Automatic annotation (TrEMBL):
It is found in: Mitochondrion inner membrane. The chain crosses the membrane at residues 17-37, 49-66, 86-105, 142-161, 168-186, 192-211, 223-244, 264-284, 312-334. Core subunit of the mitochondrial membrane respiratory chain NADH dehydrogenase (Complex I) which catalyzes electron transfer from NADH through the respiratory chain, using ubiquinone as an electron acceptor. Essential for the catalytic activity and assembly of complex I. This is NADH-ubiquinone oxidoreductase chain 2. The lineage of its organism: Eukaryota, Metazoa, Chordata, Craniata, Vertebrata. Residues 13-278 form the NADH:quinone oxidoreductase/Mrp antiporter transmembrane domain. It catalyses: a ubiquinone + NADH + 5 H(+)(in) = a ubiquinol + NAD(+) + 4 H(+)(out). Residues 280-334 form the NADH dehydrogenase subunit 2 C-terminal domain. Keywords: Electron transport, Membrane, Mitochondrion, Mitochondrion inner membrane, NAD, Respiratory chain, Translocase, Transmembrane, Transmembrane helix, Transport, Ubiquinone. Belongs to the complex I subunit 2 family. GO terms for cellular component: mitochondrial inner membrane. Its EC number is 7.1.1.2.
Length: 335
């Protein structure tokens, strides 16, 4: 409840201090959630998360104070002093885990449970993205596009040699946020659409990993023995995350590339498209292990065609349906 309250306070505030209080509540509420496992790894993850988020919050407060000294106002939308908005962009990038301030994200996700990793990669992105949306008119377009480009490349490159599904999802998160940042200053409504679709896709993917208890790539090879249906759904979810055309994940990439080319940012669009290929490679590798390989098993296990309905299966059902079938809705969304 504190997590939800913190995000809502940040999203509804007009005063910098209130926004900062919301972010601090968010950080402090997630710490016990990360460290629920009571092992050294989760404690380390919680400490890393706390230190980076506290440093980023301090930078946000510092940038708003500099701006208040210069302009005489604490209003979020009135961020007109140049050093203040550059500092704010860097602080929010650090909070979100964008490159080059991304090092904490894979480590923290690896130290926490799959459910906690789901919260960090979805809900925790809302408050900083809301601040970016509110201060958009005053932020530097060059800084946003540079951060976006760097993140999409690092997100693709970093995930290539990972064997842990949580780390792969962390680099996937970095790459997706890179796409969002690149389009933010050009068309904010596409950024919000991208954020929504990213959250739906990530939720669906984490739910399927939780149901199949897949913590490493090797674990995904055993998903078939649990439920063949789940395996097929996981394959389509991974392809959708990679952004392949008949699936929903293609929609934000298509719209962003189209808009970048319209704005004569062709070289940026080319680099973004190339970085998407890096991400696609590790998604395809996961798809391959999930659907086309079987781990050596002697036990004749029974297939679970149906899971007992609980909140996780319902959440996965809704989110995976949207992840797979939402692309034909694109014209309606754009209207």
């Amino acid at each position: 409840s504190s997590l939800a309250t913190g995000t809502i306070i940040t999203m509804t505030s007009h005063h910098w201090l209130m926004a900062w209080i919301g972010l601090e509540m968010n950080t402090l509420a997630i710490i016990p959630i990360i460290s629920t496992m009571h092992n050294p790894r989760s404690t380390e993850a919680a400490t890393k998360y706390f230190l980076t988020q506290a440093a980023a919050s301090a930078m946000i407060l510092f940038s708003s104070m500099i701006n208040a000294w210069q302009t005489g106002t604490w209003n979020i939308t009135d961020l007109s002093y140049s050093p203040a908005h550059i500092l704010l962009t860097m602080a929010l990038a650090m909070k979100l885990g964008l490159a080059p301030m991304h090092f904490w994200l894979p480590e923290v996700l690896q130290g926490s449970t799959l459910t906690t990793a789901l919260i960090i990669t979805t809900w925790q992105k809302l408050a900083p993205m809301a601040l970016i949306y509110m201060t958009l008119n005053n932020l530097s377009t060059t800084a946003l596009i540079t951060l976006g480009l760097l993140s999409s490349i690092v997100g693709g490159w970093g995930g290539l040699n990972q064997t842990q599904t949580r780390k792969i999802m962390a680099f996937s998160s970095i790459a997706h946020l890179g796409w969002m940042f690149t389009i933010t200053s050009i068309m904010p409504n596409i950024m919000i659409l991208n954020l929504m679709i990213y959250m739906i896709m990530t939720t669906a993917m984490f739910c399927s990993l939780i149901l199949s208890k897949s913590k490493t790539i090797q674990d995904t090879t055993e998903a078939w023995t649990l439920s063949p249906m789940l395996t097929v759904v996981m394959m389509t979810l991974l392809l959708s995350l990679g952004g392949l055309p008949p699936l929903t994940g293609f929609m934000p990439k298509w719209l962003i590339l189209e808009e970048l080319v319209t704005q004569n940012l062709t070289s940026t669009a080319i680099i973004m498209a190339m970085s998407a290929l890096l991400s696609l490679f590790f998604y395809l590798r996961l798809t391959y292990t999930t659907t086309l390989t079987l781990s050596p098993n002697t036990a004749q296990t029974k297939f679970k065609w149906r899971f007992k309905p609980n909140h996780m299966t319902l959440l996965m059902g809704a989110s995976s349906t949207m992840t797979i079938f939402l692309l034909p809705m694109t014209p309606l969304i754009l209207l």
